[in-house]
Design brief:
single chain; 355 residues; alpha/beta; 2 domains; 5-stranded mixed sheet; 5 strands; elongated; membrane; transmembrane helix; transmembrane
Length: 355
């Protein structure tokens, strides 16, 4: 029995069993690329801490010349401290509160007092506590009457965060938050006016939520809530605007560039967990010119060192924000969609998809 010839309709309606598959070279490149990215992520977060060492930490001393000579000989030989002499205890305390020194040693006829600032660095505070214990141990080993040694924490951490672990971890939500906002706005919002409005609104609202969690809720930040809100919002705006601006300037590659600068360069060099002097070469100082480092410094100063100058970190945040706004507004990709979602743009003004 003859079978009828297939019609055009039946031919087109038959399901296709063909499935596109990547080439082997593409598969290999993907594996190598992903492995390289993982390696770079590991190096970015581990390298600064792994190569850090206690060195060149600013320390001030005060007291009689004979006592100062002995103190400098004991603490300066290791290279851990960069020692400066000040007039008296008041000057030493002022240097700590203005962030010119991590600690101080004050000698007097009544004994030796170590001034620490755990809010500046728990690492340095612990080192000075060990040095204080060492004076008593050395005197006892030599059969001498040990001097009276006291330790005073001039700038203690919050009672809710006595070891500073919460403050150290707080830097990651700042970096991740700014990056997340910038990426999502770049992908989902089209039009330079709407993108700028989205970055601003996100920075204000997310900054409020993060400040509420880190401040009143967890007690990690103990300064003015309004100032902490302003600092966090400024950091989120600077990062978000930079990422959106880079997308507007060079297209989709700008999103990746902004994320790399924020998370893999700025965050590891922020010096939130260790003093900037302990990082290799000048990386600690360089890190203060990125958003995570500047924002972390501002939050530390606002919470624990109100006498210190905040001009430089504010200027750093302002500079990153300005770069972001300019590139966001004038970039040739500023009004292009990156990811199209039906109904997300107005039909009469919807721009073409980015190439």
């Amino acid at each position: 029995m003859a079978h009828p010839a297939p019609t055009a309709e039946s031919t087109h309606s038959a399901p296709s069993t063909h499935t596109a598959q990547s080439t082997w070279p593409t598969t290999l490149r993907t594996v190598l690329g992903a492995s390289t990215v993982v390696l770079l992520v590991l190096l970015a977060f581990v390298w600064p801490s792994y190569l850090s060492k206690v060195k060149d930490l600013p320390l001030v001393v005060a007291g009689p010349p004979a006592a100062l000579t002995q103190i400098q000989a004991g603490l300066g030989k290791s290279g851990a401290f960069d020692i400066t002499t000040v007039a008296d205890r008041a000057a030493a305390e002022s240097a700590i509160k203005q962030r010119d020194a991590y600690g101080a040693v004050v000698a007097s006829p009544s004994g030796v007092e170590f001034l620490t600032a755990s809010a500046a660095s728990t690492v340095v505070s612990q080192a000075l506590n060990q040095a204080a214990a060492g004076i008593t141990a050395q005197a006892a080993a030599a059969g001498q009457q040990p001097p009276k040694v006291t330790v005073t924490d001039i700038a203690p951490l919050s009672p809710d965060d006595p070891r500073g672990a919460g403050f150290a971890v707080a830097g990651l939500p700042l970096a991740m938050g700014g990056m997340l906002g910038g990426v999502l706005i770049s992908l989902l919002v089209a039009g330079h006016r709407r993108r700028l409005a989205a970055v601003t609104g996100y920075a204000v609202l997310a900054g409020l939520l993060l400040a509420a969690v880190l401040g009143p809720w967890l007690g990690i930040l103990v300064g003015s809530f309004v100032m902490e809100w302003a600092i966090i919002s400024a950091a989120l705006f600077a990062t978000g605007a930079f990422i959106v601006g880079m997308n507007g300037l060079i297209g989709r590659a700008g999103i990746a560039l902004g994320a790399i600068v924020t998370l893999f360069i700025g965050n590891p060099l922020s010096s939130l967990t260790i003093p900037k002097e302990m990082l290799p070469w000048h990386w600690g100082e360089i890190g203060q010119f990125f958003v995570p480092g500047a924002a972390g410094t501002l939050l530390r100063l606002e919470s624990y060192f109100p006498d210190a100058s905040t001009l430089r970190p504010w200027l750093v945040l302002a500079a990153w924000a300005l770069v972001g706004v300019v590139t966001l507004w004038f970039g040739r990709h500023a009004d292009e969609e990156v990811l199209h979602i039906d109904g997300a743009t107005e039909p009469e003004t919807a721009p073409a998809l980015a190439s």
